[in-house]
Design brief:
The structure holds two protein chains of two kinds. By secondary structure, chain A is of the alpha/beta class. Chain A has six helices and 15 strands. Helices cover about 30% and strands about 20% of the residues of chain B. Classes of the chains: A alpha/beta, B alpha/beta.
Chain lengths: ~270, ~300
């Protein structure tokens, strides 16, 4: 269960076209946050009621800060990108069940974190954690073009592999193409690897197919339009293969049971 | 200072309740709001069997409000009675169970099975705009409302609140039909049917195409309807629709509502109900109002 707090904007930078980074001081959230969790950011504007779910990119417990990296897609994120340092922002977090739920494949020594576009930020905290736990961590990041972000930071925790839609950096193609061309699953490595992915649905479906074909455990972070962020409104569900333990129907709440799911629980492919 | 009100003999410690569907079973908000300080918790609608609800996207923000088309997803009465109701029983608040059904028989079965449970009041949802049978098809037909009210009253042990739809020409006809059927109270308004187009995807923002509009955008419509109904019926009214502040709640009370429900505002501030409870008390102190009942329906 998250905390509803008034956070202070400590730092605001633009990383790429439409991509911004915000460092918020929110001690309770910073100390509780786990990789894969997210926060809800509320607007100051009374005409925009619903909080914006934004993944947690990194935390610094010592300074009590949480870093969010987000794409400006509408009113809420646009408003956030214009805030001045020192601004007070209402935030609820950390929310959801993150990668602490990993059970299948938890003994596997090789971890590949895969991020597509604005799915890349949550992979930073995850790569950091797995690096600190001494796994062999690879980060596969897909961008539209050479307007990349977070590569330097991820390089501190993982061996980075880049794919771009236009071929301007790294592999010309998707993150799946990069996994293939870089031989990340070759020579029996697939039997030692665990996959974690966040990104657009076509990418997640590709990961689910790959995981199924090669019999690799895989976890994905989902996103959906949300309203409450606390599991009450049932707005942000995903279809599940089995009856969900909370809802007692084939729906799991992305904000509560998720956003991280084992691909085998979902109906992605 | 008295803030308590009564609905069909059931005393609420204050007039502030939650709106069905926005507050889960209370559990989800219990760390943000002290449920003991609420006049009542109105649960997410429950049916005799689990319902899957609608496909996603189920919610969309609109200016001053939001659209939802959840489709009354619920775990069914067995789970509700075993998990959700016992949770609420731990709190000193009035428990209002919202009941939905696909047919008159399903409403009756649910109400009958709730008869000997700790539920204090039952709210019958005949007005969900996002499901056909049991939803708006019933709630927009006065004779059907009267018939369903009679049917559930015949088996109910708790007082019955009929929840009315604003998607009608004259809501007072629907309220009178509920009263004629023996309803102990009416609650209004459910959401107003709306639509949003996603211009980037060139399709509907909601998978269900239409959804129910809630939030501050609908408040003036809701206040008007509560006032109109208050002039026509003699049973208590639970007012709702866009309440986000104590001032909003007071408007509904003055228009004739005995109690109010706070819905969408919870999504903007998970502790908003506490602020509304405090704000009503502060208003009463400021204006030297000894009894909240003195302002209920004071605007005629």
């Amino acid at each position: 269960m998250g905390r509803y707090v008034l956070a202070t904007l400590m730092e605001r930078t633009q990383l790429a076209e439409g991509i911004f980074s915000a460092v918020l001081r929110a001690e309770e959230i910073a100390s509780a946050a786990k990789p894969g969790q997210f926060v809800c950011v509320y607007s100051d504007d009374g005409a925009h009621l619903l909080p914006r779910p934004i993944s947690i990119c990194n935390t610094d417990v010592k300074s009590g800060t949480v870093r969010l990296v987000y794409r400006v897609v509408g009113f809420g994120t646009e408003e956030l990108s214009r805030k001045e340092v020192g601004a007070k922002i209402r935030v609820l977090g950390p929310i959801g069940t993150g990668y602490e739920k990993v059970s299948e494949g938890k003994d596997r020594p090789i971890r590949i974190v895969i991020g597509g576009g604005i799915g890349i930020p949550p992979m930073l905290l995850l790569a950091r954690k797995w690096c600190e736990e001494c796994y062999e961590v690879h980060a596969v990041m897909g961008y539209r073009n050479k307007d990349t972000f977070l590569i330097d930071e991820l390089s501190g925790y993982a061996v980075c592999h880049i794919a771009t839609d236009d071929g301007s950096v790294g592999t010309h193609g998707t993150v799946l193409d990069a996994i293939e061309s870089e031989g990340l699953l070759a020579d029996g490595r697939d039997g030692k690897t665990l996959l974690a992915a966040c990104g657009p649905m076509p990418m997640l479906r590709g990961i689910a197919r790959l995981a199924g074909e090669r019999n690799i455990p895989a976890y994905v972070s989902l996103e959906e339009r949300m309203a409450c962020g606390v599991g009450a409104c049932l707005g942000c569900i995903t279809k599940t293969r089995e009856v969900d333990g909370h809802s007692h129907v084939h729906n799991a709440r992305i904000c509560t049971e998720g956003p991280v799911f084992n691909v085998n629980e979902l109906c992605l492919v | 200072m008295n803030t308590s009100v009564s609905i069909a003999g059931v005393v609420l410690k204050n007039p502030v309740m939650t709106a069905s569907g926005t507050f889960g079973s209370g559990m989800e908000y219990s760390e943000f709001a002290d449920l003991n300080r609420l006049g009542g918790v109105v649960t997410k609608g429950v049916a005799v069997t689990p319902w899957e609800g609608n496909p996603t996207p189920r919610v969309a923000e609109t200016t001053g409000g939001m659209l939802n088309a959840i489709g009354l997803q619920n775990p069914g009465l067995d789970v509700f009675l075993e998990r959700d109701l016992p949770f609420l029983q731990k709190y000193d608040t009035t428990i209002v169970v919202n009941v939905c059904g696909h047919s008159e028989e399903e409403y009756v079965e649910a109400v009958a099975r709730l008869a000997d449970t700790p539920a204090d009041l039952l709210e019958i949802n005949i007005s969900c705009p996002n499901v056909r049978e049991g939803g708006i098809a019933f709630g927009t037909n006065a004779s059907k409302i009267c018939e369903i009210t009679k049917a559930v009253k015949a088996v109910a042990k708790q007082p019955i609140i009929m929840k009315l739809s604003p998607n009608v020409t004259d809501i007072t006809e629907m309220a009178l039909a509920a009263q004629d059927g023996g309803a102990d109270a009416v609650s209004l308004i459910n959401t107003i049917t709306g639509m949003k187009i996603d211009i980037n995807r060139r399709t509907f923002a909601l998978a269900n195409k239409t959804g129910g509009l809630s939030g501050p955008a609908i408040k003036p419509v809701a206040v008007r309807m509560v006032w109109q109904v208050a002039q026509k019926v003699s049973i208590p009214i639970v007012g709702m629709g866009g309440i986000a502040t104590a001032e909003d709640a007071l408007e509904f009370l003055m228009a004739g509502a005995t109690a109010v429900s706070v819905g969408t505002a919870n999504f903007n501030n998970p502790g908003v109900t506490m602020e509304i409870v405090d704000g009503i008390e502060a208003y009463m102190r400021r204006n030297k109002i000894e009894d909240i009942r003195d302002i209920i329906g004071c605007v005629r």
